[in-house]
């Protein structure tokens, strides 16, 4: 009978745990779907405030500069540093892009010659009249061009006004984020003192602190992986003497970070083309770069992200996949973040219930052991 009661209590606890998990998961999903778009600018503002907080506090304590002014100065310096880095990198990329655009006619001529050879071989293999394959290809190309002229270009023209409105809206949101970051820096100490004695504040603070630490670790890990992939790609392209190594290396690293697409979208077809052209060395280098990119991401991503956010690599990958299915590309980040929130809330609830049981037992003089 005692054993039956024990089994019944265990089952009851598991059912309660499942119900809690279901409710928390549903709440996180609805929060991401309905609430996150409304508060996202202020989350970004909070992250900016967190970044500039040390310099702002330093200016406030050492030079007695008000937090509003100190935060504004720190924010301007941060934007200047990021902007300078992006400008320098963008300048290099633009130079390579312009150089590539100038050489497009030569590349098109080379491509036309390759197509002629392929079509001629195709005609000979199938016993067709000379020029049949090329005529069919030209006909399909003309259809694609006509399709672009009739559908795509008018659509792009019609979307120009909409795009302009979105740009203006984006600038407005950016201003809101910057102003909010400065106000958060100013108000944060007072708000903390005002609400830190409330139990709900402490509960929320535990979740947000864990989420912030894990989020920073996640973004740092992704950035590190992208840098490693970019370095690998740029090095490989330099080895084969590519004139656009930096431009293509960064592009491939960005594609590699996107789910499903990956670096193979460029590197695999490129290596096949090099192999067909008889450039075995370039093909071998490109395949090697692709394999190294896969090794870097498959090995480093679960280990870095899983270890730093306190979740096993398998669960991290599962959360990425589920997030991708639910929220698209954004789910690549929202999946692990949602898992962190669920674990943090569940752990907080369980800890609070355990505390309450212990206090109740002490009050009644019951030995829980």
Task: Characterise this structure.
The chain is mainly alpha-helical and 369 residues long. The chain has a domain of 154 residues. Helix content is 89%, strand content 0%. The protein has ten helices and no strands. Helix 1 crosses helix 2, helix 7 packs antiparallel against helix 8 and helix 9 crosses helix 10. The radius of gyration is 29 Å and the shape is extended. The protein starts with a helix and ends in a 5-residue tail after the last helix. The model has no long low-confidence stretch (mean pLDDT 76).
Oligomer: single chain
Kindly state the number of beta strands: 0
User: Treating each run of at least 4 consecutive H or I residues as one helix, how many helices?
Assistant: 10
The main sheet comes to:
none
Mean pLDDT, as a whole number?
76
List keywords for this structure.
369 residues; mainly alpha; 10 helices; extended
What does this entry show, briefly?
With 369 residues, this protein is an all-alpha fold.
